[in-house]
Amino acid sequence: MTELTGIIDYRAGNIKSVERACAAIGARYVISRDPRELQKATRLIFPGVGEAAYAMQELKKSGFDRFLRDSADAGIPLLGICLGAQIVFDYSEEGGTECLGLIPGVIRRFPEERMAAQGLKIPHMGWNDITLTAEAGNGPQDGAPFLFAGVPDGTDFYFVHSYYMDPENESHVSAWADYGGKFAAAVRHGCIQALQFHPEKSGRPGLRILANFTGAKGGAPC
User: Fold this and answer.
1) DSSP secondary-structure letter at 41?
2) Judging by DSSP bridges, how do beta strands 5-8 and 43-46 pair with one another?
3) Cβ density class 200-211: b for 16+ within 10 Å, e for less
4) 189 among known catalytic residues
5) Burial class (CB in 10 A: 0-12, 13-18, 19+), 128
6) Are strands 182-189 and 173-178 parallel, antiparallel or unpaired?
7) Which residues pair with 184 in a beta bridge?
8) Is 161 one of the catalytic residues?
9) What are the tens digits of pLDDT across the range 142-186?
10) How many CB atoms lie within 10 A of CB 4?
11) pLDDT, tens digit, for every residue of 9-55?
């Protein structure tokens, strides 16, 4: 059966860019603001831009908070992107926000003094290369697809963020990046994959990641 990817629209996501990217790779997908319409999805993409407290408020209003927790319990592969990647953690320093608690860890703000001392601005915005870890692997883990198949170590991806993922267990990190210090660019925990960068804005390598996740055929090797 062809995989069906559900794209979660909770009024805090970069939906159009994700939709265009999924269309470009020929993925079979459905977008909805109603969790009931995504019950048949075999994969879920959880995008996001903006502020953590607002995002959690919208998730609770729509029922997507319960839906995401139930989907994780059922082993449905989930791909969180940027704010969506952060919201799956326990807690965010942005607004002192309790998040979904699907990955143990905290979302932290880049330290302003350290950034300023290095002449770096917040937010971190633009292209940055990533370093893959053993957790990036070469096969599935607990139902989670291998995102980085065909993506060379050191590939550049597009970032826009003031906060970063700090997982409780560093062995869950599948890719690191550096901006005034090392931070987690990608995390994998069970069926959940969390990407701090935007694959939908990262050209061919990003399309390859989305193709790997969705099972589409349109992700050419980088």
Assistant:
1) -
2) parallel
3) bbbeebbbbbbb
4) no
5) middle
6) antiparallel
7) 165, 176
8) no
9) 444 589 999 999 999 999 999 999 999 999 999 999 999 999 999
10) 17
11) 988 767 899 999 999 999 999 999 999 999 999 999 999 888 999 99
Residues 144 and 64: their CA atoms lie apart, in Å, by 20
The whole-number pLDDT of residue 143 equals: 46
- Whether 198 is catalytic is yes
CB-based contact 161:171 (threshold 8 Å): no
Is the pLDDT reported for residue 139 higher than 80?
no
Of 151, 152, 156, the closest CA to residue 127 belongs to: 156
What residue type is 141 in one-letter code? Answer: Q
CA 65, 70, 72, 73 dihedral sign is positive
Pairwise CA distance, residues 212 & 141, whole Å = 14
Compute how many other C-beta atoms are within 10 angstroms of the C-beta atom of residue 180. 17
Q: Which two tokens stand for residue 42?
A: 């075999």
What is the distance between the alpha carbons of residues 124 and 111, in angstroms, rounded to a whole number? Answer: 12
Tokens of 139: 């096969």
Q: Which of 19, 58, 94, 200 is catalytic?
A: 200
Q: From the candidates 22, 82, 99, 191, give the one annotated as an active-site residue.
A: 82
Containing 205, the helix (H) or strand (E) segment is helix 203-214
Residues 6+ apart with CB under 8 A from 82: 14, 47, 48, 49, 160, 161, 195, 196, 197, 198
Predicted pLDDT at 137: 60
